[in-house]
């Protein structure tokens, strides 16, 4: 029988150790003791340094750069916990990077989001805990329970505290419209949409049209993640051209590869970039325009509720799109 007495055991991979420290601080407990490193031949080695037999184990790994290394590391950690007779293993994946590859939208391409789901289950994950998946249908790729949390309440709280003058929420594309509408409703703002066209498989976007009125308003560009910044910059230029006076950018995941952070900050019409810490950012990527909101209390409370067999859904008063 699963041992739910006492604290859950929470292990950190190498992708985001600070987030695990913050979660354990919230829960007022120690981080699980584990070794995770690479040998000189590039093989990953994992050794759990404490007894986990019949324990409730949570393994946190955000699938960030280098993405494939961190996925492999997570699989090996899960396997190690399984072979150490853990009672239940929950993979905590704040950012699930392959969620964009959720269907065959071209001939002869893979569905990598499903492949990674299969790998996690084969390794021994009994359940998943994630935040704001790019494609909600990824939950259906798993045969085990998936709890998808949303950072929406934290982002809404921040913008309500800002009390901005006449904001309009702008969905950066048609696909994010429902979540953007939920966000707009919660801050009592109208909604506009940027219609966009992506160019092939390149990280390049042409914004085509702004649906809705932004003239004279402060625009809040809304998306689930900020990647290279191409979508945000293209959308921002379209919104400014349509008469918006300044831009706020808001997203759950700040992936920001390469010089994306610098490119966004360099745009004078972008006032602020609001993201959460689902993805770790090196100091050189953090700038004065950036506001990073911690999701450690959200994940910590979800872990507590899963461990105690309580409802996770009760955490939210906003419906995730």
What would you say this structure looks like, in words?
The protein has 321 residues and is of the alpha/beta class. The protein is 29% helix and 26% strand. It contains 8 helices and 14 strands. It has helices at 17-27, 67-83, 112-123, 152-162, 177-186, 230-241, 260-265, 296-308; strands spanning 9-12, 34-38, 44-48, 56-60, 88-93, 127-131, 146-149, 167-171, 191-198, 205-211, 218-226, 246-254, 270-276, 290-293. The chain has a 7-stranded mixed beta sheet, with helices on both faces. It is globular.
SSE layout and pairing:
Elements: E1 9-12, H1 17-27, E2 34-38, E3 44-48, E4 56-60, H2 67-83, E5 88-93, H3 112-123, E6 127-131, E7 146-149, H4 152-162, E8 167-171, H5 177-186, E9 191-198, E10 205-211, E11 218-226, H6 230-241, E12 246-254, H7 260-265, E13 270-276, E14 290-293, H8 296-308
Parallel strand pairs: 1-4, 4-5, 5-6, 6-7, 8-9, 8-11, 11-12, 12-13, 13-14
Antiparallel strand pairs: 2-3, 9-10
Question: What descriptors fit this protein?
Answer:
Rossmann fold; alpha/beta; 7-stranded mixed sheet; 5-stranded parallel sheet; globular; 321 residues
